Amino acid sequence: MERTLVIIKPDGVANGLVGRVVSRLEQAGLRIVQLKLTRATKAQILDHYAEDPEWLENAGARAVERLQANGIDWRELTGCENAPDVGRLIRMRLVDYMCSGPIVVLQAAGPAAVRKTRQIIGATLPSQADPGSLRGGHCSDDVILSFQEKRALENIVHASGEVSEALREIEIWCAGTPSP
């Protein structure tokens, strides 16, 4: 049975979306096999968002592209000189964001759990998420606004993107916690 990791982020918890997330996963035929309310430590978040050069480059490049497309001088706004440095800035803002309040960490299991969960949650950028998805229906934050306000994009929930990523993330968040 395939498993995936879902984290309901501080804004999702604060906005009362825990039940809605769980309900949507269960309605899709997934089984919640573990769930806990916790506060993330800086070490957990740094481990979760590991300093992977490819991730830093991709995250930074996507942000730079989005800012440039809107006529914004990304170097001036971010204080960075290249895409990987923008990626590092995003990572550090994610640490602050994910440690800012309680989160819910859960494992969902079922056939194609990773793919189904990503579909339910929607695109990372709320503005690009399908209106029927969790992010599309319950989140309105924007990359440009988040950079202008010097904070992370608040998109209510994280879900593993691939089976290998799910296994790594489950180890980070659920190691030593028995599950049925």
Automatic annotation (TrEMBL):
UniProt GO BP: nucleotide metabolic process
Keyword list, A-Z: Kinase, Nucleotide metabolism, Transferase
Superkingdom, natural source: Bacteria
GO molecular function, one term: nucleoside diphosphate kinase activity
Cofactor (UniProt): Mg(2+)
EC numbers, comma separated: 2.7.4.6
SMART domains to which the protein is assigned, alphabetical: NDK (SM00562)
Segments forming domain Nucleoside diphosphate kinase-like: 1-179
Any Pfam family matching the protein: NDK
Enzyme class: transferase
Entries under PROSITE patterns matching the protein: NDPK_LIKE
Family the entry assigns: Belongs to the NDK family.
Name by which UniProt lists this protein: nucleoside-diphosphate kinase
